Predict the 3D structure of the following.
Amino acid sequence: MKPFLKIEVALSSSHLQTHILVPNSQKEFVIGRATECNIQVVHQTISRIQSTITFNQNEWWISDGRGEKESSNGTWISVSDYWHKRQREESERREIDHESEIKISDSILKFEIFNNRKMK
């Protein structure tokens, strides 16, 4: 069975989206409000291309924006950093850990990794 990534996007306290990403021929998945995004989050404070998730050598990674272009509003890599330090940890590509949470705008993304060789 191939590895896959489950993402729950909490848009509000009563609205939750669930997405499953499976890296077949596609290894890059885009989050944003544009219609061509794999995970579309329609909110005025979400950038058209907010974040990019990639799968490489059996690891999942997230980065702010896409390529060299960062999002306008940033991608908070750690919710605890957002709430406690108020430091923006964006732009750098970071590995996604099992059961990690990431904040984009007012939305929290919760990740679960399945069928990887290593679980963190």
